[in-house]
Amino acid sequence: MRGDDLMQHAFFDRIHMRIIDVLRRDRTYAESMDYAIRSRNTHMRSLLYVYDGKGTMVLDGVSYPLFAGCVFHFPLNRELLINCSREHPICYFTVRHDYKFIEWEGTSIRWTEPGDHVLPFDYVVPMPDKESMLADLQRLHNVWHNKQTGYEWESKLAFLNLLQRISEQQQHLEENNVAAQSILQSMDYIRNHYHEPLERETLAKKASLSTSYFSVLFKKQTGYSPVQYITKIRLDKAKMLLRQKHLSISDVAREVGFQDPLYFAKVFSHEIGVPPREYRNM
């Protein structure tokens, strides 16, 4: 299990949540606030979901773009500015909350103040399913304000499920980012080792990915399959070498990783449109 996975599990295992309020802020509210919300020292933890408009959150001097479909949050005791334009007023749900951590010691409970701890994901997280998120926040808002029997527990449960969903999205984004880095490293490896035997299985192993998943990610990120990219790099290098008249076609083939000059000539002709010898004389 990765370190960030452990951190997220530890957070949810220990948290004792209290919801303070659930609010919906529309363009009328943005207008009433002159399209800016300022706080020199935030006094309440809040998680917000933007369902329309766009703007910026400035937290302790650091700017974060806000947009429809994103979740954002801020902890206590921070300098905060949320602003937007008249043309695109930011509309959002906000869940004001507080929490403590509890730890069992035998049959006793020890309470811990979160301090500077924040929720186990980035300050801004893009969520993939806008309609589902909007429906869930609207449902939470309705439960909270209808005040039916058991509404506090139902609201807390819905909010914890929402936090888990955001946490899983954060993990998904991080995994995609790690995978993207692996593909970039694979591309770099191909550019530096094009003259050597390059097998898709070997490249996937270096990237710590299965062969099939590696191929899918490589195609998604580069537009080429691994074999197509290897061929492209080799032929680009071959075109440069062919301009050096002292190298034979066989020498060029071997220099760029083709052990069979005839196969090299066939691939070159198919991809470039002319045979290597004709290309050299162009």
From TrEMBL:
Single Gene Ontology MF annotation: sequence-specific DNA binding
Residues of the HTH araC/xylS-type domain: 184-282
UniProt keyword terms in alphabetical order: DNA-binding, Transcription, Transcription regulation
Presence of keyword Transcription: yes
Protein name: Helix-turn-helix transcriptional regulator
Top-rank taxon, per record: Bacteria
Keyword RNA-binding belongs to the record: no
Record InterPro entries: Homeodomain-like_sf, HTH-like, HTH_AraC, HTH_AraC-typ_CS, Tscrpt_reg_AraC-type_HTH
Organism from which the protein derives: Paenibacillus hemerocallicola
